[in-house]
From TrEMBL:
InterPro entries cross-referenced by the UniProt entry: Cro/C1-type_HTH, Lambda_DNA-bd_dom_sf
Keywords (A to Z) from UniProt: Plasmid
CDD domains: HTH_XRE
Name of the protein in its database record: Helix-turn-helix transcriptional regulator
Limits of the HTH cro/C1-type domain: 3-61
Ranges that cross the membrane: none
Lineage of producing organism: Bacteria, Bacillati, Bacillota, Bacilli, Bacillales
GO molecular function per UniProt: DNA binding
The keyword Mitochondrion appears for this protein: no
KW Membrane (keyword) present: no
């Protein structure tokens, strides 16, 4: 599942998700967008928080999966 899909299924816009994140830690809209577009990988606490807010398992996010070819 793509992060964008998980966010949309949780009925969040990028802006509303970042507002929710701000209740727990700092994250700019630009930083979140870079994560969603696959330009950045979040540090573990932020990644887990995003997944908790969206109601998904971190292992289900495609952008964060380990590339099987690199093992």
């Amino acid at each position: 599942m793509k992060l964008k899909e998980a966010r949309e299924l949780a009925k969040h816009t990028q802006e509303s998700l970042v507002k929710e994140i701000h209740n727990h830690m700092e994250c700019s809209l630009r930083h979140y967008q870079n994560i969603e577009y696959g330009k950045k990988i979040p540090k573990m606490p932020l990644g887990l928080l995003i997944c908790r807010i969206c109601g998904v398992d971190p292992d289900d996010i495609d952008e964060w999966k380990i590339n099987q070819d690199n093992r």
